[in-house]
Amino acid sequence: MLQKISMDQDNFLSIWKNLASKVDTHLSTCLQPQDGMPVRLLEAMRYSVLAPGKRLRPILVLLASNAFGFENTNPWPAACAVEFIHAYSLIHDDLPAMDDDDLRRGRPTCHKVYGEALAILAGDALLTKAFEVLAKSYPALAGAECCLELAKGAGASGMVGGQVEDLAWEGKPGVRGEDHPKEPTVKHLKNLHDRKTGALIRSSLKLGAIVSFASQNRKPPEDLLQILDNYGQNIGLAFQVTDDLLDVLGKCESAGKRVGKDAQKGKLTYPGLLGIEQSKLLAGELCKNAQHLASQLGPNAAPLMDLADYLVSRDH
Questions:
Q1: CB neighbours (10 Å) of residue 313?
Q2: Does residue 101 surpass a pLDDT of 50?
Q3: What is the CATH number of domain 12-313?
Q4: Interior angle at CA 233, CA 230 and CA 234, nearest 5
Q5: pLDDT tens digits for 85-94?
Q6: Residue ranges per domain, the chain?
Q7: With the CA atoms of 311, 221, 139 and 204 taken in that order, what torsion angle do they form, in degrees rounded to the nearest 10?
């Protein structure tokens, strides 16, 4: 179990930074030389994973795990696994064939430094590394449950499916099928981001519960998993609405990536459909929903309430 976290212990941002620093240490430990691993490949993997980042998804694993108060819980492998998946998705998303970005987390993207071929392979290696870490770090049943949950969140019906929808609305050649809707609605946008952003966020929370209850040789109750899933859906959308707003209103130095690019590419965004003010109101509503859900998990879940506030007030 992590050191007990409560709103009275410290302000939330200090807690976040402390956890993020510990996540970085564990990520670095997981990414060490192995027999047969090309040195240049490991460099590209470490370059992308260890770039300065919010560490939202691994921190969600930690906070969800901590919410149940069990001793002897080891959430760190699961936290590393979800960040490996996230980093791989960013490497691939930045490629010229997809979003064609040259800046990520305040520095050149992986393919700009290592070339497209090695960037693709670094992403592939991180994707498989995530499941290796889960399978070898937990008892067989818990490890299998973790692998299944992460595969669902990251796969064709989750994150990858959402990325396909994003590219389809952008009009990427060959991506949009004949049955694809012609005019976007808020429902289409919500469905896209429930998968592209929200699916991995929801999986992160449920991984935290799985490994927490595994320490007691139990499975988490379905009603608790449902609360975490609903909470994750709300903060996932709040995170995306805020990201869309930052792309319109933010500054490159704060965001750590190019801003204004979504509008230039014709991407489907909340400000584009709802306008800036309505998008801000929506983010606030999603935040309140998430806080109400987190309150049902008890006092150890207080940081999940603070996290919802942070996600809609951040500048990067």
A1: 11
A2: yes
A3: 1.10.600.10
A4: 90
A5: 999 999 999 9
A6: 12-313
A7: -10
